[in-house]
Amino acid sequence: MTFFNKERKLILAVESSCDETSVAVIEDGSKILSNIVASQVKSHQRFGGVVPEVASRHHVEEMTVCIEEALVEAQIEPEELSGVAVTYGPGLVGALLIGISAAKAFAWAHDLPLIPVNHMAGHIYAAHFVEPLQFPLMALLVSGGHTELVYMKETGSFEIIGETRDDAAGEAYDKVGRVLGLTYPSGKEIDALAHLGQDTYHFPRAMIKEDNYDFSFSGLKSSFINTVHNAQQRDEELSVKDLAASFQASVIDVLVDKTIRACKEYPVKQLVMAGGVAANKGLRDRFSEEVAKELPGVTFIVPPLKLCGDNAAMIGAAAFVEAEKGHIADYHLNADPSLTFMSI
User: Fold this and answer.
1) Residues 201 and 102 in one domain
2) Is 191 annotated for ligand binding?
3) Exposure winner among 74, 127, 132, 302, fewest CB in 10 A?
């Protein structure tokens, strides 16, 4: 008997790894029947970043409401579901535990299998809502906590060939935004400013020429901060638009150069870019241009903006792959805040 022994293949998915409480109902791994996202951005803005304790409290408040809304919007009753999927890592341990507890309770109450999902795998499978994934493929994961190049020979197979050695790209955006006095999260605003400025400050492109696929954004962040602080000490006014453009140009150059080189070395049919930073318009446009020019025969896929950030729909898509592989958890499932692809 296969896992999906009901007429419709339906999974209820739960995501709570950071500061979004999200619940979705997914059909066949590629159709979104509902995708409820309760954002906490306004609660964390005054702190300039996510406060774990505050995030956990919000998840407690929103989880039951999100589950109810997801089922109502999808017009699905619990007995129609085939399973319950939940993010168990990586992420904030307290936030993860709220989602896991809710998923366990729902699965137990309705006698449904529990499917554990790696949050980062979810980001990759968000691209499956755009078009079917074809293997082998290369995935560039860019978010606030991760910057990784992942080679996938087949579905459910993940090989990290490159990763950041210090700051993630999204983390650098947030810290630069704080120096510029922008509202958290500042990635969207920096992107908008960058389109109005010029790369006049020529910040470093760390490790761009090295014979590997690793990244480093700590030096770029330090160079940016030093430039701004030195100008302030001299009472010199700098162009915020040009600062944003120069910073973003450095990030994009490194990400694009290394990813394109990796796609030339590894046989791939598709290049997937996913994660919160994948919403960056400058990065999307540059990749579209370079893939068309440098990688004939390779399709570039990036999820729609609403699926770049954390959401349960992507967890549901990845859950179908896990379920087909027989990866089912028992009620001892625990949060793994440091989960990697190597842990799967």
Assistant:
1) no
2) yes
3) 132
